[in-house]
Amino acid sequence: MKSFSFFPEQPNRRTFLKMTAGAGAALAIGNIPAFGINPEKNDALNIAIVGCGAQGRVLLEACMKIPNIRFVAVCDIWDYAREYARRFLKKAGHEPNAYTDIEDMLSKEKNLDGVLVAVPDFWHAPHTNMCLKAGINVYCEKMMSNTIAGARSMVETMKSTGKLLQIGHQRRSNPRYLVTLNRLIKEANITGRITAANAQWNRAVADDLGWPKNAALPAETLQKYGFKDMHVFRNWRWFREYGGGPLSDLGAHQIDIFNWFFGTAPTNVIGNGGVDYYTTHEWFDQAMVVYEYQTAQGVARAFYQVLTTTSAGGGYFEEFMGVDGTIKISENPNITSIFREARAPSWEPFIRQKLLAESIDTSAPKSSAKVDARETAALAAYKLPIVLNKAIHQPHLENFFAAIRGEAKLNCPADEAFASEIAVFKAIEAVDTKKLVTLTPEEAHV
Amino acid sequence: MNNNPKSPLLSAETLGFFVLRGWLGVRALLTGIEKFSGTKTVTEALLGADGQPDPSGAMVEVDKKVYGLSHYHAIPESFQTSFSNQPLMPDFLMKPFCWALGPLLIILGLTLLLGIKTRLSLAVQGVLYIMLTSGFILINQDAGIAWLGIHIVLIALALKWEKYNRLTITRS
């Protein structure tokens, strides 16, 4: 792999004029995004995307401001989604070949540096393993698989082939999360010992996804790729054969944050939940689970809730509660706050370092606001001033591409993601059985 | 320079008036300038303890105070809404008053500090504070009324002792 550089070599006057003239022409034509994607560059990475549905589009859009990548192939069994992706990329100056079948794509595209896999969960393991065995690095959306065996096989294939496998837990590359963990928790220890965590994703009731009537896939195509019918194809997330339900779709991201911040996998989990509202779904629409973690500082308990029946309760966030302070963080900066206990040492040095910003109310807690003598006064709240001026998936994709070029280590390699994967599967088991489910360190590693 | 022969330069009365004039001048000048202040949010690299950019590439938003015509605000937005609901404060009066308030305070601050038409400047400042007080009365801002009342007392005292005015550019 050639080393990455915006200019391949120091330009002389003539090459500089050529480059600026080319850039001017490109901008005038208007088909190249302003940040400087130039698919014609020789050192651009050749990338393909498999799965051009909602999540695939999110990844494509996040890639549009990353320089020096060239989409050479799009693959989707649904021509409606595939054509959307092809046109989208063409507008951005790429010339991707379109494929229905991944095996066909891999047999014809011989210069791929990386593949983005954004197909339904039950195809993650087969497609990822196929690409890795073909010698191609893979960025695979989470969950890794709809089965533990599938997820395990992905780690094993990554190890045996020596290729890169990044799992799409994009928070692990988000500077807001990185600074929170590395600077505020590990370095500054502003929370003190973390004894509890709390995370949730509450989402309003939504109708099942439909499709344009003239765009329905033929029954034989659906059958070939494992789908019962078009409704299941569009709403696979709600069916047990294809995905893991809301605990997997939404919870996997946040349960991964539990593991990442605690530096370990949980030891057990209890849960409750069910299909309480929807009549057309197999997966539970409400789930609440409690994990137990044996951290380096002692025991910590983490509550996780996913509700797809109400958006009340504050949206989506992860909250780490310590004896000196609490960090409530979300991909949405408006939901992020940091609370200081009255007993904590001064946080002024962290404000000076710009790790914290004075916020909503940093005044001393008022004891007069208490209505019960046993109540602790309200906490002073601070802001996290770190900003991410990019699409939320962009830093994680940038990390993947930098790792392909040998310039970075993956922020979420499959073997690390596997521990989070197992934690989600155990939570699903706990909800299904309504029993305490244990997780051994051996189970969390491949 | 205009020197009043009746009042020695270093007399207590002269110095007393000088500091009173100075206080009222500074108060008006800086209040006027602040009406042109605003906040600009800039993004800069987060630095580590070693002064180097954080390895995560984190950027941090920092609010910086800036001045400019585009930031001009005669009165706080919350007051503006309250004033607009007052039938005794019609728009055709409010608009020119708001437009003039900041520049007028700056001019009054400069004339008081430099000693240009001191008596007239004090009188205009007094009228201005009476107008502001009227607004505060209508929207029940008792603290603001009391605060402006202190200013009015100082202006009245300054007018009473204006005969001790020294170190001026023009006669009162």
Top keywords for this entry?
heterodimer, A: 446 residues, alpha/beta, Rossmann fold, Dihydrodipicolinate Reductase, domain 2, 17 strands, 33% helix, disordered N terminus, B: 172 residues, mainly alpha, 2 domains, two-stranded antiparallel sheet, 55% helix, extended
What this model shows, in words?
The complex is a heterodimer of chains A (446) and B (172). Chain A has 446 residues and is an alpha/beta fold. Chain A has two domains: 146 residues, NAD(P)-binding Rossmann-like Domain (Rossmann fold, 3-Layer(aba) Sandwich); 239 residues, 2-Layer Sandwich (Dihydrodipicolinate Reductase, domain 2), CATH 3.30.360. In chain A, the strands form two sheets. In chain A, strands 14-15-13-12-11-7-10-9-8-17 form a ten-stranded mixed sheet, with helices on one face. In chain A, helix 5 links the parallel strand 4 and strand 5. The relative contact order of chain A is 0.14. Chain B has 172 residues and is mostly helical. Chain B has two domains: 118 residues; 32 residues, no CATH class. Chain B is built from five helices and two strands. Chain B has a two-stranded antiparallel ribbon. In chain B, helix 1 packs across helix 3. The longest helix of chain B is centred in the middle third of the chain and has 24 residues. Chain B is extended. Strand 16 of chain A pairs antiparallel with strand 2 of chain B, so a sheet runs across the interface.
